[in-house]
Write a structure and sequence with these properties.
Length: 116
C-alpha cells in the first residue's frame, strides 16, 4: 500500500518523468527532452516542498543526507537543462541516465527514512 497522499507528486511519478527524459535524450529529441526535463523539474520542486515538513522531523544527520540528495538531483536537472538549451555536444543521455539513477536511490532513501 502506498502511504504517500495522491495529491502530492509521488516517487513513482518522478521516476516515470525521469524515464521519459532519458528516452528523449537517447532518441536525440531536444524538444521532447526539454519538455520532459522541465516537467520533471517542476514536479520535483513540488515533491521537495511537500516532503519538507517530514524532513524537519528527522534527526539532523538524516535530514542533511536527504537534503543533499535532493540538491544533487536539482543540480543535475539544471545541468541537463543547460545542455539542452545550448545544444552542440550534449552528453544529455549520460546526464539523464545519472539523473534517473540518483532519483531512484533518493526515492529509496526517502521511503526508508520517512516511512520508518
Amino acid at each position: 500500500m502506498d502511504s504517500e497522499p495522491r495529491h502530492q507528486v509521488v516517487h513513482e511519478d518522478l521516476l516515470t518523468l525521469a524515464r521519459k527524459a532519458l528516452a528523449s535524450a537517447e532518441d536525440g529529441d531536444a524538444q521532447r527532452l526539454e519538455a520532459a526535463s522541465m516537467r520533471l523539474f517542476e514536479a520535483f520542486v513540488l515533491h521537495v516542498g511537500a516532503e519538507r515538513p517530514a524532513l524537519l522531523d528527522l534527526p539532523p544527520a538524516e535530514a542533511r543526507l536527504l537534503l543533499r540528495g535532493q540538491q544533487r538531483i536539482i543540480d543535475l536537472l539544471v545541468d541537463l537543462a543547460i545542455s539542452v538549451e545550448f545544444g552542440g555536444e550534449c552528453a544529455c543521455d549520460t546526464l539523464a541516465s545519472e539523473l534517473l539513477a540518483r532519483l531512484t536511490l533518493q526515492a529509496e532513501d526517502e521511503r526508508h527514512r520517512l516511512l520508518h
